[in-house]
Amino acid sequence: MLDCALKNGWLQFLEFAKAKCARAEFDNWIDPIRLISYDENEIVLEVPNIFVQEYLLDNYSDILREFVPLQSDGEPAIVFQISAPAASPPKVHLPSPPPPEQQSSSPDLRLNPLYRFEHFIEGPSNQFVKSAALGVAARPGKTYNPLFIHGGVGLGKTHLLHGIGHYVKENHKKLKIQAITTEAFINDIIDALRSKSLDRLKRYYRSLDLLLVDDIQFLQNRQNFEEEFCNTFETLIHQNKQIVITSDKPPSQLKLSERVVARMEWGLVAHMGIPDLETRVAIIKHKAENKNLCLTSQVAFFIAEHIYNNVRQLEGAINRLCAYARFQNADLTIDTVERVLNELVQSLPQKKITVDSIIQSVAQAFEVRVSDLRGESRQKEIAIARQVAMYLAKETIEDSLAKIASSFGGKTHSTLLHAWKKITERMQSDDMLRKQIQMVQRNLEIT
Ligand code: ADP
Ligand code: MG
């Protein structure tokens, strides 16, 4: 049995911390700590990760002296143990009602009100990255800089990025924040160049305390903007201003200059994995609850078993079910769920991007016929669409160039390379074309 006086010391500290800090802060940082053992000389605490340990020591060292045994130098005598990572079940935070929208610290700050830490369901695949995000949000510029979050599409990168934004906005009110997509960053520079206000824009970015940059992969093939991004990046980092970046790939796999890649690896690179079954069930239940949709555990498991690599698709499933339940006023049994989700459920697991799916998507987006893309026509619209399809095939599909090229009605590998070069160049100056290509890319990944 724990000695009451000592155990009480820790319990008293918990009471103190609970009264002192905000609920979310307590839940995220203090509550996960477990008291393992003690003697008069030291106490042993179990923490889920190093961030929690650092948080505790950075914020409560002084106070802890009042509650726990001390070392000879007067510091709290605490031994930390890190708990096994996957041991804890997914943690569901009760949704707290979103606070009234406040005036943001900068005029253009657009944070999705739903993308808060409280609405982010944790599991083994994302625990580490969520802790890192919380660590950065609690002490911007003082821990990992930059924090680089990478992972597949629809897994919650933007959610966490905005979560950091909300947290900092509410807990560090004086800090100047900007959340921006890489696309918007580039567009800002283009606009500023046009209106000859680049200096003002640079000053603005360099005056930020927290810069949240979403989808840095869109900086690839935009050499002209890489340098500007890199300069802004270095200026902020050297002033200990926090930068958080998301990407669909780790830095080393981005086609960016060595200088930029090296900068991205300066801080902490954290991977967002695909949530396991239990976590997916927890996410489904959480999303359904928020929409007042009643789901049995059996139904939640059914959905989680069939949609497994993209949380956005899980949400899509919930939305469809919600609409169905509302219009039909019917109970959601496995049969009805299976029927409503039929299309989704059947198509998702086999989903793989192929030359065919690229040709189909490009034909749709560029309003040309599939047969034209495989044919020889030199008509301008068709030739460009064909080059775009070849560009995307080379970018997306891991196969020999000769084999990819032959899928375009028997073209050669040098035709494919030529098309790829042409489109890469055109994307530098043709905003319209770039947006169309991004749209096709997104369609291919998401639908
Ligand atoms: P990404 O930026 O990685 O493509 P998003 O952040 O846009 O993905 O997430 C897609 C959707 O899935 C969002 O609506 C987000 O709220 C939701 N989502 C992703 N991961 C989680 C999670 N762990 N808990 C709750 N919702 C999640
Ligand atoms: Mg995103």
Summary keywords:
447 residues; alpha/beta; GMP Synthetase, Chain A, domain 3; Helicase, Ruva Protein, domain 3; 5-stranded parallel β-sheet; 3-stranded mixed β-sheet; 20 helices; 8 strands; 54% helix; binds adenosine-5'-diphosphate
Which SSEs are present, and which pair or pack?
Layout: H1 4-20, H2 23-30, E1 34-38, E2 43-47, H3 50-64, E3 78-82, H4 127-138, E4 147-151, H5 157-171, E5 177-181, H6 182-194, H7 198-206, E6 210-214, H8 223-238, E7 242-247, H9 258-264, E8 268-272, H10 277-290, H11 297-306, H12 311-328, H13 334-340, H14 342-347, H15 355-366, H16 370-374, H17 380-396, H18 401-406, H19 413-429, H20 431-446
Parallel strand pairs: 2-3, 4-7, 4-8, 5-6, 6-7
Antiparallel strand pairs: 1-2
Helix pairs in contact: 4-5, 6-7, 10-11, 10-12, 15-17, 15-20, 17-19
The structure holds adenosine-5'-diphosphate (ADP) and magnesium ion (MG).
